[in-house]
Amino acid sequence: MIAFLRTQRGRWFVLAGLWVVVIVLGIGGFLQQARESGEPRSTLDTVYLTLQLATLDYSGSSGDMNWRLQVGRFVVPLMAFSTVLITASVVFAGELNRLRIGRSSGHTVVAGLDDVGKRLAIAFADAGERVVVVDPDQSLVSAATSADGRLHGLVGDPTDPGTLARVRVDRARRLVVAGPEDARNVRVASAAASVAAAPTRGRPALRCAAQLTDSELAALMRATDLDAAGGMRLSYFSLHERAARSLLSEHPPFTGVDDHVMVIGLGRLGRSLVVALGQQWAHLHRHRRAALTLVDAHADGRWAELTRRHPAVADVFDTEVVDVDLAHPSAAGVETLAGLLAERPPTWVAIVVDDEPLALANAVFLQQWLPPGQARVVVRMGSAAGLGTLLESVGGGTARAFPGVSVFPFLDRTCTVESVDGGIREQLAEAVHEDYLAGLPDGGSGTGLQRPWADLGDDERDLSRRRVDGIVGDLAALGCELAPLRRWGVPAVTLSDAEVAQLAEREHRRWYDDRTAAGWTYAETRDDAARTNPLLVAWSDLPQAAREANLDAAGALQPMLARAGYEVVRTVAASS
Question: Quick check: 446 and 469 in contact, CB under 8 A?
């Protein structure tokens, strides 16, 4: 209610209500005055005097001024002034808004105001940034700026360099391109490059992050993250790819005991999820295969396409494909799916179709066919609010409407500052942490660092960031660098035993320096409270078991990078 009253519409409602009160007081006051003075007065005369009071043209009349008239004649001038002020703000709002935008500097520009763009704009405003939004649809701009007074909006085509100049992209800190069309987002980024000013002393290059709904295309385009030049640093992000990693981090799929995962819906999120599942399983069980069931109207064709893009997914899964149109299922399709659920129930199910009512219907269907407690079911919803609340509780209590069914709020988890502003370093740091969680026996839940990335503080995240810095330096020492992953499963760079040993030794040295700088010292037993560790010794003095663990971790570096969407390439030929 308070937020509504702060809006322009809310202020008009308050002002109109106060005018009604003043008019009622005026009519009542004049009627009382007529009775007390004994002078008869018609209804029209009473209304006329009230209008004089309201227009500041009342010069008094016979009879005493009762309390109603006293209140009215002092409040009316304030009301009139407020009305003029609000009216002027409406008339000149556009000009004032353009003036504010024209004077902006160091701000964030968000181009595209569908659900994703609007949420990202609010996320940056929550982070304390000054945000200017731009979209060719006036209704979207008005809705965004009315819903959040911190946002300044401009109606215009962001693919036009003139529009970007009016929102002062040349003086902005960052540009976030969040439209729903990949080709259009690339055109916006291209237009921004022509407007962005060359970086000067004290003013860094414009950071431009453009959304690509195609996860594979986003991975290929990330090479631009590795090399920034000119007046703009361009990067691409995929919300579907990030959502897949976040979903697996929040809802671990593998327990190690007869795992059978099912993915319902093979859209962009579903395909990203299958690749992420395969990479996580390959990390946990290198010589075993997992059971995977895929359900979609075009499951067979999309699985074939996925294996061509990422051949390794076929090597880690025993896959069963069920072609059934979930929106308009046939009797045969439903019977096939029901038979599969009865014959071998899954242990983990992700329902990641875009249609929320359809996702709920599938959750209900699974509840009817799966034995109680047999499977953990995760349902993709746009946000935790809305239809997602139907799965959470009954009547606002603690009892869940569908036990075992959890909501994954897609937009809540992906429309964050970190999703678009982290760059390669932040993405790899998150992947390092997720790799750590995946290797925990309890699936990555608990206290300390055993929590999802989103729940960690900045100091805790710095541990993974420093690990990434170490990886980049270690690879450079081998004459290698990172590049976007092209195809998971295609043979990557083969590191020799000597190179793996060099990586392991360098990582131990980095860890040693990191720990000692934080105040840790050597002792024969580990004590986290006293900050002592028996492994704080030179590489040559490490116990054999600890050295082998470091070598294993170095050998697993490339699979971990692949899970984050990167691979190692050589810039200098390895010596023989």
Answer: no
84 burial (CB, 10 Å; 0-12 / 13-18 / 19+) is: exposed
Tens digit of pLDDT for each residue in 228-256?
A: 445 687 888 888 888 998 899 889 999 87
* 3 state SS of 381: strand
Which range has the worst mean pLDDT, 40-44, 60-64, 241-245, 441-445? Answer: 441-445
Strand 480-484 vs strand 566-570: parallel, antiparallel, or unpaired?
A: antiparallel
**E strand or H helix at 430, and its extent?**
helix 423-438
Put simply, whether the predicted model's pTM sits higher than 0.85 gets the answer: no
Distance from C-alpha of 376 to C-alpha of 358, rounded to nearest angstrom:
18
Q: Give the amino acid at 9.
A: R
Q: State the burial class of residue 131 (Cβ atoms within 10 Å of its Cβ: 0-12, 13-18, 19+).
A: buried
pLDDT band of residue 318 (cuts 50, 70, 90) is very high
d(CA 90, CA 111): 25
Both structure tokens of 315: 């090597």
What DSSP element (H or E) covers 407?
strand 405-409
Q: Which two tokens stand for residue 123?
A: 């996320």
The most confident of the ranges 62-66, 237-241, 445-449, 486-490 is 237-241
Return the H-helix or E-strand segment holding 276. helix 268-284
Crossing angle of helices 458-477/497-517, nearest 10°?
140
Q: Give the orientation angle of helix 43-54 with respect to helix 8-37, to 10 degrees.
A: 130
- Structure-block tokens of residue 513: 């320096």
- Provide the token pair at 354: 């875009």
Tell me if 299 sits within 8 A of 271, measured CB to CB. Answer: no
Q: Locate 548 and state its tokens.
A: 């082998």
Q: Per the structure block, which two tokens stand in for 205? A: 């290059």
CA-nearest of 17, 49, 18 to 31 is: 49
Distance between CA atoms of 217 and 182, rounded to whole angstroms?
9
What is the C-alpha to C-alpha distance for residues 168 and 162, in angstroms, rounded to an integer? 10
Name the DSSP class of 527.
Answer: B
Given a contact cutoff of 8 angstroms between Cβ atoms, the answer to whether 354 and 382 are in contact is: no
CA atoms of 475 and 473, how far apart (whole Å): 5
- The per-residue pLDDT of the chain, averaged, comes to 81
Other beta carbons within 10 Å of 225:
21
Residue 330 and residue 324 in contact, taking contact as beta carbons nearer than 8 Å: yes
pLDDT digits (tens, 9 = 90+) for 480-512: 888 767 666 666 688 899 999 999 999 999 999
- Contacts of residue 471, Cβ cutoff 8 Å, sequence gap at least 6: 428, 557, 561
Handedness of CA 94, 96, 101, 102 (dihedral sign): positive
Residue among 447, 561, 451, 463 at smallest CA distance from 503: 561
Q: How many CA atoms lie within 13 A of 127 on its CB side?
A: 15
Task: Return the pLDDT at 338.
Answer: 84
